[in-house]
Q: What sequence folds into this?
């Protein structure tokens, strides 16, 4: 394998970038390779810090999404990264790349959605910049958050025997995107919530904080690129493998209902589809009772058990006696898809 | 004037965005409308925070700039924003939009330049994300810094009678860009430093910290868009006007030397040309002696006096008995130019 071949996967590129930038200073508790960077603060707190870019034609299409919806979602996807560390989001900066030929009054529609998301998530936009972006609208949001250093949950930390959970059912955002892209017209009672799941994902801040503060998660990530990719990140960071029995994957009933029209396998949408923005986490086997009780007390939907952590490498789907590796079958961020990849 | 007309200028758009986002919470000492946002921390410190995006074909052209040079410069322009508040830069996140058709091994050349800038400025890159950007390479850096709250210098603060200074001479980066864009071949003793000024601007962190810590500046900004635009930002934020006698504008002698070949007025390059990344600041008249002594003691080049703050509105060039308004004659960020505009 030549050095060039080594770089074909995004994971290797991230690793190469990390080598180039070198080790972070001691106050940086979490550097490259998690949902947020984390910097130690006074009083046992960590400052969480993340950035995400959404590119027109890659992550969104204004043919089926309003600018106001885009403004809302562009903050939501960052809030989800803070939730994945168990944190509370705080402040944001916006870097808005606006096509010069487009009426800039429309930027206020975008800002209206972003401001509404700010109110929904308790975040204030406190600055940023605007630039010309002739190649298409480009939205970068950078967000801070805060979490107690002792409570923070990382991608690394999953141990052999831990159980794998997700905060909600899977595949809805991917199915919603298919409906929008292909202009399909299923029963609105099915399509409306699926489209909503794609356009207005709900980052799981309360669940993330609960898991962190009660010490219930050994590792955590948000589902931006799909279980196959995001669980692989947990497995790589933790040095373990994952077994997912096909029957226990919590495919959304709405996705099952839409599947014949979409002509897509609902299990594949659930495992490889991105943008569910649920939290995927691991819990020690002996804490599962506490986990279920804590979610019920907090009036959060019960977490769904997806599988378990085993020794080895990779994410494996189990069907009967057979075992298929599905690691990384979500989105690759350098293809023309919706994925972003944390450095 | 219809509401739409009101939005034709970038300044009005920024004001409209600020209204949409509403007032920041009390811990946010500086919100929308300065070089950085500033958040109060424990112990009398402020966390400074900025973001800047560079877009291929707008802010840079890889025909005359290497990826390594781009990596270096993309951190430098953010460091300059922290310098403009009197701060010390700390940590950065990178959001890299990479064209899917381009060999991603080349991203490591970019990373090498960024890492080198990190070492030069004492900044560590601690995370970020990568996305596909079919419209062209798009680089967003977000940077933190730190400054004592009592020392921090803002755009607002210039008072009538204050003198206007700049940390170095003007127009070199704009002349260097002209040479590169038009493929001109002046004497290398002239062209090499001009090209260097464009490709590798030197943010004035030491000068900014000195001005802040010694309480010598009443207002400050970094020169990204040119004096005509950036001084106008100080004037608007401070509710004052500026008078610049033409003879006292510190046009770089190299720009004067290159002017016949460029067929450009050196004074215009100095006032309207962007990307000098010097610091433009105002000082009370009675502190000018202390200012010059402090710069000499710190072995910094002497600051150049450019003009003075007067009552009124706008930036005015004085030539003999005549007075010309030049406010905002730098770059407009929604045209296809190199400018970025802080929100």
A:
């Amino acid at each position: 394998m030549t050095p060039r071949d080594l770089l074909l996967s995004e994971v290797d590129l991230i690793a190469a970038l990390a080598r180039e930038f070198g080790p972070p200073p001691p106050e940086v508790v979490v550097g490259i390779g998690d949902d947020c960077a984390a910097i130690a603060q006074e009083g046992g707190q960590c400052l969480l810090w993340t950035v995400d870019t959404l590119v027109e034609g890659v992550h969104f299409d204004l043919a089926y999404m309003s600018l106001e919806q885009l403004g809302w979602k562009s903050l939501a996807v960052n809030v989800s990264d803070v939730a994945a560390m168990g944190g509370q989001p705080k402040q944001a900066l916006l870097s808005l790349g606006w096509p010069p030929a487009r009426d800039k009054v429309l930027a206020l529609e975008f800002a209206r959605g972003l401001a509404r998301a700010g109110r929904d998530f308790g975040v204030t936009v406190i600055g940023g910049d605007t630039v010309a972006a002739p190649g298409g609208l480009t939205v970068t949001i950078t967000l801070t958050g805060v979490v107690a250093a002792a409570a923070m949950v990382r991608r690394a930390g999953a141990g052999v025997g831990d159980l794998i959970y997700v905060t909600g059912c899977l595949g809805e955002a991917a199915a919603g995107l298919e409906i929008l892209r292909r202009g399909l017209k299923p029963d609105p009672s099915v399509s409306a919530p699926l489209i909503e799941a794609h356009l207005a994902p709900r980052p799981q801040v309360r669940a993330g904080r609960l898991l962190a503060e009660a010490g219930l998660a050994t590792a955590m990530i948000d589902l931006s690129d799909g279980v196959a990719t995001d669980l692989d990140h947990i497995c790589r960071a933790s040095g373990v493998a994952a077994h997912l029995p096909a029957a226990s994957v919590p495919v959304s009933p709405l996705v099952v209902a839409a599947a014949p029209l979409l002509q897509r396998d609902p299990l594949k949408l659930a495992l490889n589809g991105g943008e569910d923005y649920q939290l995927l986490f691991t819990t020690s086997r002996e804490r599962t009772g506490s986990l279920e009780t804590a979610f019920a007390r907090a009036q959060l939907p019960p977490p769904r058990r997806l599988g378990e952590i085993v020794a080895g490498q990779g994410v494996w789907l189990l069907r009967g006696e057979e075992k298929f590796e599905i690691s990384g079958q979500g989105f690759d961020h350098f293809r023309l898809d919706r994925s972003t990849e944390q450095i």
About this structure: Chain A touches chain B through 81 residues (CB under 8 Å). The first strand of chain A starts at residue 28 and ends at 30.
